[in-house]
Design a protein that fits this description.
Two copies of one chain form a homodimer. Chain A is of the alpha+beta class. Chain A is 33% helix and 21% strand. Chain A contains 14 helices and 18 strands. The first copy, chain A, has a seven-stranded antiparallel β-sheet with strand order 15-12-14-13-17-18-16. In chain A, strands 5-6-10-8-9 form a five-stranded antiparallel β-sheet. Chain A has a four-stranded mixed β-sheet with strand order 1-2-4-3, covered by helices on one side. In chain A, strand 17 and strand 18 form a beta hairpin. In chain A, helix 12 (359-372) runs antiparallel to helix 13. The radius of gyration of chain A is 22 Å and the shape is globular.
Chain lengths: 473, 473
């Protein structure tokens, strides 16, 4: 793929671009390229910012198809945008062109609580999906960090995870059907309100996690399940990584299936302990949150088992009961990233995955890699899934430090590959990790990755430059 | 794709073919094309039989790569073969060429019970995987019908289901990593002993269910979970489809998550009731099996809830307790297909999927379609997943009847598409349903399906003619 400058080949700045788009979807659905809020996503802390030539806010799949068709006919890059909560720069319009924000497509198209399913437009907030499910006695389990900001379409396009993915799986596991607009502007539906389908190649899974580079997801059929009656977490602290990771392993060895199995290492605990409900002992340097859920008696039994299994070597083990305490705990957990960030004002945070038996090694190596690059480092994340948020703390105004952090991230990707893991468990490749897949896949697989992109997007206009397998094929 | 005759372009019957293959993988690993057992699969009842030019039994991924490479260099069709238990003719070498049977690749490559995972070669029997898991206190939940015959590689290549897929999902949900040989003879690994991975496009899911048309799966990392302490089914009978399907709906509406939610309609129950443990009342014309599983007390509580919910309108409700009774029940359930088959000596059985709210309609329509084509028809299957084994009984020696059954199947596929379902929930397209995807997908999706095939298999040599989206593109 060749990157094209927005100001040369694409009709950026050209008022005819806006005019033509307005004739397609209506005056009120097209904003100027400098409309605030569409040039960056959560990767802005890494200095990433684009400049769209226009922002389109379609109100239907048909409008999306018209816009994709127009962009394809006029060789204009198109960047689909959800809630903008991505960490990999996937929604940043680095080559100009059209930002297609799904924010106005947030209707619930069908809700069948008795059938454990709903159909939604892509622009609905993930938190709204979860809320609607809950109000109907059901649960949509995926709970990525920024659920109030992120859209379900964005979560699908990145196959987002979250703490409860340990028991319930990632977003894709809950999507039974997708509607998408593919090049050069056609609508396809794969799957539907059905729970099994092996008729065709799994194009649904191919679109899930494709980060807007293969098509624009416009609607989804979601699978739901009965909500657990209670959620009863256990919070345990340890003196160090070894003791904590031993405890995590014991949970699996005991044959317990908790809903979550989260951890914070010493650095992330230090950064966030002040607001930890109930606090922690001074010698606590590792924290585990494992939650039992289900029917009340069963969850209580599981919680007691979890407490027993987590106790050996622990500084402290607390079994939470009150719903308010549980909610407070998870609110705190949601704020960990911010707390870590505020230590030095900025951070570079990755989301590597390793086999569970290499978790302790990866946690220690994160700190060691930081040390090598003269950076404070820490990690936290989804221990049971071997998914670390390995993080280097930076002063975002210090270019040299940012550069060292980028180097440290390279070492981190090396580590993930060396341990037989993945360079991304949640955030995807986006722009920041483009080309990094080369560490992880054989040449034949990389070639197939590139050919998949070519058949879906022969002109390379869909979110160009993002999720590249290699920088040079 | 053009079908090529084995006897013309491919060097079928040519002793040099056998000689060259033997030089690649050794004398003992290549059988003559007429070696018994490689010309057909379970679709033989529909008259499907091929004739391979050679049968290769590789012992390693490297040998598979050598054979694929050789076939690709010499334009020889290659048909990967698992246990041969498929119903769609996916393993039948209709164009001659090489049958590549994975039967000698059945090692457990790694077993980590404490980490809930194992790595196996593709040729291991699914029942062996399940047994090894169980011996280690774990469960590999997918339980397709022919687990003693089928290989895990074949189950992955068709994304097989089974009764317990209702709670636990289909085979693909338990595969975290795949090794495969792709054209023109290269080994790729996607995923691994990890539980999350969003780094690349989901080539793993693309290979899962691809029926040997995109590559040859040689090994897999499987996810396991702690085995449920007990499995406690409830068997309920009803006077008809309406009462039975109402009961099934009530299970979901009550917010109960059973492990299975199976049904038999009047015809399949009549065909199999003689061996049903405990028998059934004379007016029983619909049967539901819903199983509670988990820790003993919790499963007992769930089983009691299931019994209560299934009771209204029932002829009889039985809650099984003893392990031997449970095993006997599932052995009987496994034999339903055979019992139905033996009614008239033959059957044409499909595996359509419909949204759960259309289940009763699809069950009735199956019988009605049969009537229209003067065929006795019945269905049974995975009610909770909306997955019917809609079946037309035939005398396999009566060509006219077979032809009418084929016509009835067409009506059935129409029905599935019209109800928003899928033409296949378990068996795949194989040869018998090639081209039928057209009923279900838009042209753009069909085109992408064909292009996916082209990038993985530009010469069209991998299981040629199988899983075609359209007959004429």
């Amino acid at each position: 793929l060749t990157l094209r400058g927005a100001s040369t080949e694409a009709p950026g700045g050209d008022p005819s671009l806006l005019r033509e788009l307005r004739s397609l979807v209506g005056e009120g659905s097209v904003l100027d390229g400098d409309a605030p809020g569409y040039a960056a996503d959560e990767s802005e802390g890494s200095g990433l910012r684009g400049s769209p030539d226009a922002v389109v806010l379609p109100q239907s799949t048909a409008e999306v198809a018209r816009v994709v068709g127009w962009c394809y006919a006029h060789d204009v890059p198109l960047v689909p945008r959800g809630g903008g909560s991505g960490f990999a720069g996937g929604a940043v319009p680095l080559e100009g062109g059209v930002v297609l924000s799904l924010e106005r497509m947030k209707r619930v198209l069908q809700l069948d609580p008795g059938l454990w399913r709903m159909r939604v437009e892509a622009g609905i907030q993930t938190a709204a999906v979860r809320r609607i499910a809950r109000e109907n006695g059901l649960s949509f389990p995926p709970d990525p960090g920024a659920a109030e900001q992120s859209h379900i379409g964005g979560n699908i396009a990145t196959n987002a995870g979250g703490p409860h993915a340990f028991k319930y799986g990632v977003t894709g596991a809950w999507v039974t059907g997708l509607q998408a607009v593919v090049a050069p502007g056609e609508v396809i539906d794969v799957g539907g309100p059905i729970r099994k389908d092996v008729a065709g190649y799994d194009l649904k899974s191919l679109l899930i996690g494709s980060e807007g580079t293969l098509g624009v997801i416009t609607a989804a059929w979601l699978r739901l399940i009965p909500a657990p009656e209670v959620m009863l977490p256990v919070v345990a602290t340890y003196r160090g990584t070894t003791e904590g990771c031993d405890a995590i392993r014991r949970v699996l060895e005991a044959g317990i299936v908790p809903a979550t199995l989260e951890y914070l290492d010493a650095g992330s605990l230090a950064a966030s302990v002040r607001s930890l409900p109930g606090g922690a002992a001074p010698d606590a340097a590792f924290l585990v949150i494992s939650e039992a859920d289900g029917e009340r008696a069963e969850a209580a039994r599981l919680q007691a088992e979890l407490s027993d299994v987590l106790r050996p070597g622990a500084v402290d083990v607390r079994a939470l009961q009150a719903r308010s305490d549980v909610e407070e705990l998870w609110r705190w957990r949601d704020g960990v990233a911010l707390a870590v960030s505020s230590t030095r004002g900025g951070k570079l945070s990755e989301d590597i995955v390793v086999p569970l038996d290499r978790l302790a090694e990866a946690i220690d190596a994160t700190v060691e890699i930081g040390r090598r690059h003269r950076l404070e480092a820490c990690s936290w994340g989804h221990a049971g899934d071997g998914n670390l948020h390995s993080t280097f703390l930076v002063d975002a105004s210090d270019a040299a430090e940012l550069e060292r952090a980028a180097q440290a991230a390279e070492d981190l990707f090396d580590l993930a590959a060396r341990l037989g893991g993945s360079i991304s468990g949640e955030h995807g490749l986006g722009w920041l990790k483009r080309g990094q897949l080369e560490r992880q896949w054989a040449p034949a697989a990389l070639r197939l990755h590139e050919q998949v992109k070519e058949i879906f997007d022969p002109k390379g206009l869909l979110n160009p430059g993002k999720k590249l397998a290699r920088l040079v094929a």
